[in-house]
Amino acid sequence: MNDGTLPKTYEFEDVEPRCYERWLKLDCFRANPASDRPSFSMVIPPPNVTGQLHMGHALNNTIQDILARYKRLKGFEVLWVPGTDHAGIATQNVVERELSREGLTRHDVGREAFLEKVWQWREKYGGIIINQLKRLGASCDWSRERFTMDEGLSRAVRRVFVTLYEDGLIYRGERMINWCPRCMTALANIEVEGEEVAGHLYHVRYPLLNGKRALVVATTRPETMLGDAAVAVHPEDPRYADAVGRQVLVPLADRAIPVIADPYVDREFGTGALKITPAHDFNDFEIGQRHGLPLYRVIGENGAMTEEAGAYRGLDRYACRKRVLEDLKKGGFLVKVEDYTHRVGHCYRCRSAVEPMLSLQWFVKTKPLAERAMEAVKRGDTRIVPEKWERDYFNWLENIEDWCISRQIWWGHRIPAWYCRDCGGVNVSLKDADRCQACGGDRLDQDGDVLDTWFSSALWPFSTMGWPENTPELHKFYPTSVLVTAFDILFFWVARMMMMGLNFMQEVPFRDVYVHALVRDAQGQKMSKSKGNVIDPLVMMDRYGTDALRFALTAFAVQGRDIKLSEDRIEGYRHFVNKIWNAARLVLMNLKGSSLTHEIPENPERLGHRWILSRLQQVIKDVEAALEGYHFNVYAQTLYQFFWHEYCDWYLEIIKPDLYGDDPRAKAIAQTVAAQILRKILVMLHPVMPFVTEEIYQRLPEARETIMWEPFPLVEESRVDAEAEARMGLLMEVITNIRNIRGEMNVAPSARLEVVCLCERAEDAALLDAYRFMVEDLARLSRLEAAPTGTRGKPRVAASAVTGGAEIFVLLEGILDFESEAQRLQKEITKLEKEIVAARKKLSNEDFLTKAPSDVVEKEKEKAARLGEKIAKMRVHFSRIETIRQSAAVH
């Protein structure tokens, strides 16, 4: 493989699977708990077993892989634990859909047969996302892959449940919960996502008994009035002072209910009178408890009206709403209907509107656990990055409510509780119970519910390392070093892991939590299939290669800011991959048959060598600081800038005369410096671009079996050379200014120019004179004259620029036809002015601004701004041409 050359083009389709297979064969990802190296560990946020790789996964796992590969290069023993989550509700829904195609339900086949089908489904499809993560380049320790329903994790889940129950932190009770009528299960509060819904506010008359007056109540859910137990008003509201203590009639329900006074009522909302339905609203339940109100359950678990709904029994809740409104209108009870936008809770899985209802469920008492989780972050035991997320973390934990952990589904960890038919006793046990602890009876039934999926995920940092056994992995790698996660599961998962880790390991589960933002489309919109703006990472990897996708995500991963991603940006970084390949190819071609020194002289005489070596030291420092501080965009951009704009655009061009010249020593030094710097750049780029760097590295002299076994570059302070950087900086500024003038003046690339450079400092003139051949070569000059200011006159027929104490004159007489150039510019300016008038006219059109899509309007604004900038530049250029033309005429 190491023949010293690279193919003409980089074929990622061939390279990527071959490189990944190489790493697996060399066992590069396996962690050794017996190692004496310092440890670095992470647990992967387990994707759902039903999942497919999306751009959020791609970002999350790219960041983790960067950290894992970087720390290996730094000499750490790295454990990155992979795995998948059983995703109770989502997986059950998938298998139930398959059954429905056969005309069956899970109840038709029974619990045992249904679970067997789920396991079969998992066996067939559960590895899809794991293989997709491998395609992304994830360097997880696959020998330690875990699943939240595997035997070891199931044992850990039962131990935690039983321990918390025995400690009084888990209990069973009847409380208000959120219920999903589609998934037919209870949900925890944070599994309910509020959505703004355009609805109505219905004003309904509730007649006072024994009087002509009626109280008007405003409600968004008229169907729940069938379960009303009271009408509440504020105790200080004078409008209703005489009604408190009396009774009103519930329209359509033939039931009298009391008018009560409660400070919860908002006097400004609606009419100031609030219907109270204790069995179907969290706040109403609390009011009902304070006032001893009865509970009327009129909506069932399937979303249909119950027997207590009377004539409306059996109707779907929305069909009931329609019928109730018709009957209210007929009976003269409907006063008015207003448009009203309000937040409605939806199931985070199926998006159905949830129903608050009273239900017997299992709960975790979270306040004692939450206090420790808050204190750990306040003490600095765990750091949240960016820091702004600490506020959200504290706010949620300070206002935490008990966690409903039972789910009315079959796929998941079944609750280890058995109920005695003889005495009604509850038996919670590590082993399956066969006798009642209270009466000794053997007629026991296990609870049919399973635990919330997030209950098992909360144990992930220590359960995946073998807890409750005292394993070498726990000794070496717990607590983990960092958790990389998205902000939307900060409460679902991060806070719960903190609570469980502190309770069962007596230590935080991770030292750092890095919270990354969302990946959005180019316009900043959230990606969704319904909008048609989803960018599929698998498609992008097929088109542009994995390295290009990874680098694009990393380059835009600014702390606390969402990523605006487009296919164009990914394609742009494919060009960067090609640039790396072509530059490496140039270096390697020039190493063939060379007398490579392998050692860079301590103080190479050429300025270009000293400059690039000095710049390299700063780049190493900046890259390390960026990765240690989770500034992934800075890491990517630092290497992009250095490799493309300094190493390729300048250094490789500077050393070409030595590479192709006849001086063997100069050639050997140029080859050595170019190759050794390339080697270090490849190592620094490897964490983000693992495939192309490995493929090139294998062609380098004295390459190890894999780039992953290379040490990360160390800063060599002796190579830092401020003088070389300043001197090279002046040469680069002069060359850049000459190139800019060539471009602005529309000078043909083939034209060789004469340049006069007048310097304020004599030493700058001497420097330019000493490196005259470099400047002439890189700026395509026939002659460079450098002199101190005042020692010669300033050329008149020339375009000029000033930089760093030097005035540059590009002689244009005989090079440029000033008349023709002035005419060309005037014609171009006229054309652009017509375009900008049309663009501004469109932007002043109210119809266009209000009716056109926002992205179209934005593009038109950007177009107008670009045209304005271009016209301004061309006018400046025209003015310069006119000035030179007049000087030439006088001359």
TrEMBL record:
A motif ('HIGH' region) lies at residues 47-57. Residues 19-566 form the Aminoacyl-tRNA synthetase class Ia domain. It is an enzyme of class 6 (ligase). It is found in: Cytoplasm. Residues 815-842 form a coiled coil. A motif ('KMSKS' region) lies at residues 526-530. Catalyzes the attachment of valine to tRNA(Val). As ValRS can inadvertently accommodate and process structurally similar amino acids such as threonine, to avoid such errors, it has a 'posttransfer' editing activity that hydrolyzes mischarged Thr-tRNA(Val) in a tRNA-dependent manner. Monomer. This is Valine--tRNA ligase. It comes from Desulfoglaeba alkanexedens ALDC. The gene is valS.
